[in-house]
Amino acid sequence: MNTIRMLGRRVEYLGKIYPLSLIEAMPDADGIWHVAITPFERETASTPYHGGTVRISFPNGHSNSPELKLLP
């Protein structure tokens, strides 16, 4: 399982809204996925950017990778 990394203009996760933030989702040793959302600090060329809203959810539980919906 690979780490998911993305920069979003607006991020929605667990009922909270984060402006211009970096999303990092990664599984732990037991295969349970965790999400870290941090404010944007500097540009990294290899990080994909979405200019709208990124909505994060786990419709199939935290044992499966998160679903990222890219909204305008």
Question: Can you give a write-up of this model?
Answer:
The chain has 72 residues and is mainly β. Helices cover 0% and strands 60% of the residues. The protein starts with a strand and ends with a strand.
Task: Please summarize what this structure is.
By secondary structure, the protein is an all-beta fold. The chain contains no helices and five strands.
Q: If strands are numbered along the chain, what order do they take across the biggest sheet? A: 3-2-1-4-5
Q: Unreliable stretches, pLDDT < 50, 5 or more residues?
A: none
**Global outline:** globular
Q: How large a portion of the residues is in β-strands, by DSSP E?
A: over 45%
Instruction: Determine the number of helices (DSSP H or I, runs of at least 4 residues).
Output: 0
* Helix/strand class: mainly beta
Strand/helix succession: EEEEE
Name the helicity range: under 10%
Distance between the termini: 28 Å
**If you compute it from the alpha carbons, what radius of gyration comes out, rounded to the nearest whole angstrom?**
12 Å
